Structure formats: C-alpha cells, structure tokens
Amino acid sequence: MVVEFPNYVKVDYTDGKGQSAKDYQGLEHKLEKSIQVVSDGLEQYESPAIMWTGGKDSTLLLYVIREVAREKGEEVPPVVFLDHFAHFSEIIKFVDRWARIWNLDLIKAQNEDIARLRKRGSKEIKIEDLNDANRKEIQKLGYKEKSVIVDPDSFVGNHLLKTAVLNETIIQNGFDGIFSGVRWDEQEARSDETFFSPRHDLEKYPPHDRIHPILQFDERNLWDAIWKYVVPDSVEKYPVGHIPADYNDFPDGISIEDVPVGPKYFEGFRSLGTEKGSMKSENKPAWLQDLEETPERQGRAQDKEGIMQRLRDLGYM
C-alpha cells in the first residue's frame, strides 16, 4: 500500500476555492475550464482513473476526458464502476453497452465479501461473519451492533459497498488521481470542493487526489452539453441541436439505445442512486423539467438521512 502521496504531482489545490457555477458564465467557458483541468490531470498523474456511474454527470466527465486524451494521442484512463448491488438494471446495461462501444478499460468493483454473504438470501449480516477488512471498516464507523442490514442508502451500507470498495480499488491498482463528476451545486457537502482536492490522510484512505473537472456546471448547463456535444459526437448523423421530447423523438434510424443518455432520464428521473432510493420528479424527460426552481436530488435516500458530509469525510465522492 502507498504510505505517502507521490511528490511528482504539482497542482494548485486552491483552484476553485470560494467559487461557484456563476463564476463560469456560458457553456463554452465551463467547457474550457473542464478541458484545462482534465489536461492538467492527465499530465500530472501517472496512474489516474475515472469514476463512472452511468449517470449524466460522470458521462459528461468521461466525454471530456476521452476528447482530451484523443487530442493528446493518449489512452483513456481505466474507468471504475462501483457495483453496490442496488442499481437500476437499465444502468447496468447502459454501462456495459457504452463501455464496449467506447472500448473502455472498465473495472467493475464490488465488495466481494458482502457479495458472498448476500448469496445466503438475507440483507442482514452478522458482524462476526464479515472478513477482517470489513470488520475493520465497521470499527471505523463506531458501529456497535452485532448485525447490519447492508443497504447502500444507509451510512454503514454506503461505506462498505462504495467507499471501502473504492479505497481497495485504489490500493490494488495504484491509482494516484481519481477523476470524479461531482458539481458544486449538486449537494451542499460538495459546495466547497476545489478542482484538485487532496485525499492524503492515511488513516482514512490510500493517499490520492480527486480531480473535479465539471464542478462549475449546473444541471441546465450539463444537459446543454450532453445534447450539443456528447450525443452528436457519439452518434453518427445525429442532428446537432435536436433535443428529444420523449423516447420516440429521434430521427429515422436512431433510437434511444443509440444515444449515450441513460433511459431513466427519459422517464423523469433527474438524479440516479439506488433503484429503491431514487424517484422521478415528473413524467417528462429530465432536461424538459424546471431545473432552475426545483431540487435535483429530491428522493435520494442518502441525502434525506443527512449523511453525505460524514460519508465524504470517509472518502465518498
């Protein structure tokens, strides 16, 4: 395991401090900043990785990184998908399909010990049945019960199924930088992030940096970028400027499976978490809703529990 952060990384950890999305006016300005952050990240880190959930934010992130890597003539870094066993089935299919189309080096990471115990058919797991690594993670949280229901929308479950898995993936692969698609306006606990954010406390996580190229986007800008750039650049003959009103509103020869936009967004979901922990805002597609005056993450269970800041202190995105 890495015991200290490598000294070859020279980045400005204050870049973005005290800023918000309003400091970057217009879509082009926001994209320029994303390109700069990605370019610096690819130059500075010897072994970076990209977090991809299959959601809108990380798909835009992945698009920018792929474009910058192509311009530089470099390989796209490995892409990490954290499987917490509670995804919408459509998300799994979406990730698998576009990983093949884009020829990604996809790492599907999961808590193998919990996967083994889940096969017994019960979500409630005795602490004594967990392996040493998971018991140590439980101790970090100060959890005192003799059993736990491993639900990714809960504090303990989220840590075991996401954060602990990410940390182990970083160790196994020697990643020094993690590209993440978090945004300032998405959640209060992320509002003070910077474009390059250190995670060097060995007591909490393997030393690495988080790289946040799309902090400056709001929900409206993000959808604008997806329909103006991501989709037309990914789908041959897709007409620039066409924004579909529903599942069937595509030009001849193009269907929903042909576009890199998760199908749940067409159903009215604006923020995707677990299948049970997410709910749609309206019946119309996310980008046609009132994005400015209504909350993006309503219905996200972990937000309702008010545990986001505690999770992020432990290394969650």
Write the layout of secondary structure elements.
Elements (H helix, E strand, L loop, with lengths): L26 H18 L3 E4 L4 H17 L6 E4 L6 H13 L4 E4 L2 H7 L5 E3 L5 H9 L6 E3 L5 H19 L3 E3 L16 E4 L8 E4 L7 H16 L28 H5 L33 H4 L3 H6 L4
Helix pairs in contact: 1-2, 2-7
What does this structure look like?
By secondary structure, the protein is an alpha/beta fold. Helices cover 36% and strands 9% of the residues. The chain has 10 helices and 8 strands. It has a 6-stranded mixed β-sheet with strand order 3-2-1-6-8-7. Strands 4-5 form a two-stranded antiparallel ribbon. Strand 1 (48-51), helix 2 (56-72) and strand 2 (79-82) form a beta-alpha-beta unit. Helix 1 (27-44) packs across helix 2. The longest helix is centred in the middle third of the chain and has 19 residues, at 155-173. The chain is globular and about 55 Å long. The model has no long low-confidence stretch (mean pLDDT 92).
For the biggest sheet, the summary is: 6 strands, mixed
Strand order of the largest sheet: 3-2-1-6-8-7
Q: What radius of gyration results from the CA coordinates?
A: 19 Å
Q: What global shape is seen?
A: globular
Structural class: alpha/beta
What's the helix count?
10
Approximate strand percentage: 5-15%
- Spans with pLDDT under 50 lasting ≥5 residues? none
Oligomeric organization of the protein chains = single chain
Helix content: 25-40%
